Give the backbone structure.
Amino acid sequence: MWVRGILFFSGLLLMTLGIALTIEADLGTSPFDAVLVGLADSAGMTVGIWEIILAGLFILVNSLLTRTAPELAGLLTAFATGLFLDGWLFLLAGMELESIISRAGLFLCAQILLAAGTALYLHTKFAPIPIDRLKLVLIDKLHSSVAVTKTFLYAVCLVSAFLLAGPIGPGTVLTVLLGGFLLQYAFIVLQRLGIMPIYESSTS
């Protein structure tokens, strides 16, 4: 349990560092993160707080769709994610990158950290982030494939981010196209390092 806890929080730390660096690179973030930044810029409060607020909303939606009690453990994961994200953004505040090459390099490093952190976090099988749980619920309720469901959620987030003037850019497209590949590669690397057993790759 202690090992799982260390891997869980280490994964969240790496994942949120990747998100924060993606935001600082200013080339576009993932559709969902673009929504968070757009809400923070237009409605106030921090990106991390909006992460927690939307997580609470998703938990209620998941509860209504599945007709089960709210999975409050997911809110704890979202709370930790929001706290870490705000912490990284505070530490990285004031970072200035003028060169497009340096920004692109930072963006790529961020994606690697994001994939590694997500792989570690998923490996522990603790409470998932509510939006990840929503994806699974929609797949079950709509009898749709993972690809169709992910595309639908991406589309909703992209439209929302556009309306909120969130950071949409070429990095957003790369995040969508490369996210799954990098996550799968992160699982393979972690397996070879002995951090997770081979059967865990199925969680991706």
Remarks:
- The CA atoms of residues 102 and 198 lie 35 Å apart.
- Residues 198-204 have pLDDT under 50 and may be disordered.
- The longest helix spans residues 2-25.
- The chain is about 75% helix and 0% strand.
